[in-house]
Amino acid sequence: MNKPNIAIMTSGGDVPGLNAAIRAAVRTAAYYQYKIVGIEKGYEGLIDDAFIPLHSGSVSNIINKGGTFLQSSRSERFKDEKYRKVAYQNLKKNNIEHLILIGGDGSMKGAQVLASESGINVIGIPKTIDNDISGTDFSIGFDTATNIAMEAIDRIRDTATSHHRLFFVEVMGRNAGYIALEVGIATGAEGIIIPETHRDLQLLYENIEHKKNWKNSSYIVVVAEGDEIGGAYHLEKTIQQKYPDIYTGVSILGHIQRGGSPSCRDRTLATKLGIAAVEAIQSEKRNVMAGIIHEKIQYTPLEQIANRSLDINENTIKILKILSK
Ligand code: F6P
């Protein structure tokens, strides 16, 4: 008996590890004898009928590559019912019964709509460097992004130390502080400014006072782009007014954090989730997202997937206080 066809696509911002997930899903599909096709440019390609056949050979030598060879998009058109209808017709025309969607929480919302309106089974795989998606401990891309940011900040620290300077380094994360907190701890930052702690400038002032007269002192303040303080440049102005004698600088890491070869951890996470997505289809699961919670594959219904924010508890605050002085 012929097995139903699977389609796979990547949606939203690219992250390192997408190719590893596609590769794993394509090869697992081949293993279970499903036909699998790729959809280029995410929801946009769904609307434009950009379906391409895939086989094990199509995904050779991509596990180490950043970006997504299927390309991606943040689709405005898919929000419009008129275009969604076209997308559903294309899925039917290409005989697709299951769609593997690699995306963040916004894309998963789109997936719920797609599943309920079209009857297609959608299996999600979580990716975002921001790590702000529920249903998994870590999303694909977070580990690489934090390692890139860490390396960049270590370099900035050399200049900061050599010239006794204070650098504000802005990292991505949209409205969440996962990247900033992780990277701030890993680089021994004197200040970590994240949306979840609501402007904890007092701690930063204390640290500046504490180290001001040390001979080889330097300061790194990691600022999450989503903090209500208004970004690294804004914070620099505030500090310049309070400490006019300290030489300051700003560095915005931006999209550097999203590119490049995925880390070992992201490659293995993506591979496990790519396999889990096809195995969900094989075991007749419907409309779930595959994640890893406490080191085990867990399937969460798509309607329960949401944006999540960093849990800042007393212990985290204590860690920050102890380590920054
Ligand atoms: O969600 C990932 C992310 O990189 C955020 O950290 C950032 O705010 C946003 O995407 C940037 O989006 P774009 O690439 O569309 O500018």
Structure description:
- The chain is α/β, with parallel strands linked by helices and 325 residues long.
- It folds into two domains: 5-141 and 262-304, Rossmann fold, CATH 3.40.50.450; 143-258, Phosphofructokinase domain (Rossmann fold, 3-Layer(aba) Sandwich), CATH 3.40.50.460.
- Helices cover 40% and strands 19% of the residues.
- It has helices at 18-31, 42-47, 81-93, 105-118, 142-163, 178-186, 201-211, 232-242, 264-282, 314-323, and strands spanning 5-10, 36-39, 51-54, 96-103, 121-126, 165-171, 191-193, 219-224, 247-252, 288-293, 296-301.
- Helix 1 runs parallel beside helix 9 (264-282) and helix 5 packs across helix 6.
- The radius of gyration is 22 Å and the shape is elongated.
- It starts with a strand and ends with a helix.
- The mean pLDDT is 94.
- The site of 6-O-phosphono-beta-D-fructofuranose (F6P) has 9 residues, from loops.
